[in-house]
Design goal:
By secondary structure, the protein is an alpha+beta fold. The protein has 11 helices and 20 strands. The protein has helices at about 5-20, 35-50, 60-70, 70-75, 80-90, 110-130, 145-150, 155-165, 175-190, 275-285, 310-315, and strands at about 25-30, 50-60, 90-95, 135-140, 195-200, 205-210, 215-220, 225, 230, 240-245, 250, 255, 260-265, 265-270, 290-300, 320-325, 340-345, 350-355, 360, 365. The strands form 4 sheets. It has an 8-stranded antiparallel sheet, with helices on one face. Strand 5 (about 195-200) and strand 6 form a beta hairpin. Helix 1 crosses helix 2 (about 35-50) and helix 5 runs parallel beside helix 6 (about 110-130). The longest helix is centred in the N-terminal third of the chain and has 23 residues, at about 110-130.
Length: about 375
């Protein structure tokens, strides 16, 4: 067990608050071996809750070995264990703990998109069960040197930053998130019921229809850290262009300087300063990959910088993110795809978010 009490604090949040694990439930705990201290802490909390944990740990270097040696037939094979989990587990707690965020940089993009298209059905089934209330899930990270390096921080500073964003050092960790969620809920309530969102920023002027769509406040249930509210924009409504200011690491590749232009909801032009070939292949994965599945608005001002890790960057207070691909059914979105890739647009330097002509946010600060 790690000597850092914040690891135990984070485990308590994941089990007791995010997924509210109950006696007798089956809980899938998935993660990478570098996250062993957190995985063990989560395992203990699940047992204390009277539930049945199933621990699934990937070894360091396993995913790189898989893409190096697997044939197409092996890439297309779905483990019956994975299928059983998607259809039967009550809860899934997943922990990312990469020790090399670029280990897949040399993998041919079509091999990654093939695997993504094959596993897309699992994602669709999981999202459907989640929307129906039959399945609860949460994704978090365990601080590693690789994540710290991407964020251009020392590991100690990154741990302080990460656990701070998760409120894991708080004396009452469960109540801390209940308090933090109130503002996110207020903003989600304010925006719902309107017709159109317009986002303007350097290189950005885009309109998204939101009529009849639900805005979901994200208060630490599915992601930790959290802090956003999102919807699935009306599929054929998106018009205009967006410049995404923060670089992201997607499938082991840095994709940065992304620009997308939309007509009638579809990406008709796409470019990137880095990772363009991979971006274009991602957009061609299937029919739904060129439509937006999500518009999200960040509310976590404790995350104040880009880290090249989208779990954190999409929550930055003063940013919006848009995901190409699958929408979450509970938002009213109906776009289907095996892709769901978030890209972040920073509104803190001259950006504006308007809802039916009323300014909701200016220069990254909410004014409603």
């Amino acid at each position: 067990m790690s000597g850092d009490p914040r690891t135990v604090g984070l485990a308590k949040i994941l089990v007791g608050y995010s997924t509210e694990v109950k006696e007798g439930e089956v809980v899938s705990i998935d993660g990478e071996s570098a996250a062993a201290p957190l995985l063990l802490a989560v395992y203990e909390e699940v047992l204390k809750a009277g539930a049945n944990p199933v621990l699934n740990v990937a070894l360091e270097g396993q995913i790189a070995a898989y893409f190096k040696h697997a044939s197409d037939a092996q890439l297309e094979w779905i483990s019956p264990f994975a299928e059983w989990m998607v259809d039967n587990a009550d809860v899934r707690i997943a922990v990312g703990a990469s020790t090399n965020t670029r280990e897949l940089s040399g993998v041919a993009p079509e091999r990654q998109t093939l695997r993504q298209s094959v596993t897309g059905d699992l994602m669709t089934r999981a999202m459907k069960r989640s929307a129906e209330g039959d399945f609860r899930w949460c994704y978090t990270l365990y601080p590693t040197s690789a994540y710290a390096s991407e964020a251009e921080m020392s590991l100690a500073d990154y741990e302080d930053f990460y656990y701070g964003a998760c409120l894991a050092g708080d004396a009452d960790v469960l109540n801390a998130w209940r308090q933090a969620s109130k503002e996110t809920e207020r903003l989600a309530e304010w925006i719902e019921g309107h017709e159109e969102v317009r986002v303007t920023a350097p290189g950005t002027d885009v309109r998204l229809g939101i009529a009849g769509r639900r805005f979901i406040p994200c208060d630490g249930r599915n992601n930790m850290p959290d802090g956003e509210f999102f919807t699935g924009p009306v599929e054929d409504s998106v018009e205009g262009e967006v410049s995404f200011h923060l670089p992201a690491v997607i499938g082991g590749r840095e994709v940065s300087g992304v620009k997308l232009r939309f007509e009638a909801g579809k990406v008709v032009e796409a470019s990137a300063e880095r990772g363009e070939e991979y971006l274009l292949k991602l957009l061609d994965t299937d029919d739904g990959a060129r439509h937006l599945g999500e518009l999200g608005i960040g509310t976590n001002y404790g995350i104040d910088r880009g880290t090249r890790e989208v779990l954190l960057d999409e929550k930055i207070g003063g940013t919006v993110h848009m995901a190409v691909g699958a929408s979450y059914p509970e938002s009213g979105g109906v776009n289907e795809s095996s892709v769901h890739t978030d890209l972040v647009c920073d509104l803190r330097l001259g950006g504006k978010l308007e809802v039916d002509g009323v300014v909701m946010q200016e220069d990254g600060r909410f004014v409603v």
